[in-house]
Amino acid sequence: MAHPPATELVPGIWRIPTVGRAQVNSYAFVDGDGSVTLVDCGLRSAPPRIVAGLAAMGKHPSDVARIVLTHAHPDHAGGAAELARQSGAPVAVHVDDVPYAVQGRAPRPDQSLRAGRFLARLPGGGFPPVPVGEDLTDEQVLDVGGGLRVVATPGHSPGHVSLLHEPTRLLVTGDAIFNVLRLAISPRPLCSDFRMTRRTAHRLGELDYDAVAFTHGPEITEGGREVLRAFLARTVTARTPE
């Protein structure tokens, strides 16, 4: 059975899968005036799937008024330049990831890890340079659907952010936490600083929300805060492996 091109999670917020059923996700926030804020743009090959997702919502790239990236990795920023071109929308990235976004390269993986040092030597890993029009900062509240709060959760990348939509009580974790097969902290070799990833993930347990949306994996629509807090208590508080 074909996967739906877009799924409404709460009123006005849609998940658009760009790989598989939910292996890699983008999100669309529809404002009262009909404009769309797009969160993450998938791989370089993702724009057609995102455009199809918008069409399923009755929207077009011309309705996109802003693009927000949770971080500057190829599976999140890869399609951003093309979607910015199609929509004319400005792209917003946390200030600490802006240098990577505009150069079209991911931050170096954690060099304290053997796997990170190995991955850093591999070719590739780039994406089309992103024309950043807005620098995001921690606790900034974007004028999106009544307020979209930027929550800095660095470690997966220097400027990684999660996003809290307080009006609908929905949290987008970005890559701070994955939900592919099971809940998990971002894999160590994929982080620029794995120990920081574990520390900053605690912020997500301190926020107030009901539903949790992941950029990798399906959402939790009920009791999300309790599920995440229990996960963090048994996982993140454990001693970080050397």
Automatic annotation (TrEMBL):
Family annotation (SMART domains): Lactamase_B
Taxonomic superkingdom: Bacteria
InterPro entries in UniProt: Metallo-B-lactamas (IPR001279), NDM-1-like (IPR050855), RibonucZ/Hydroxyglut_hydro (IPR036866)
Annotated Pfam families: Lactamase_B (PF00753)
Segments forming domain Metallo-beta-lactamase: 23-216
Gene3D superfamilies reported for this sequence: Ribonuclease Z/Hydroxyacylglutathione hydrolase-like
Organism: Pseudonocardia asaccharolytica DSM 44247 = NBRC 16224
Protein's name according to its UniProt entry: Putative metallo-beta-lactamase superfamily protein
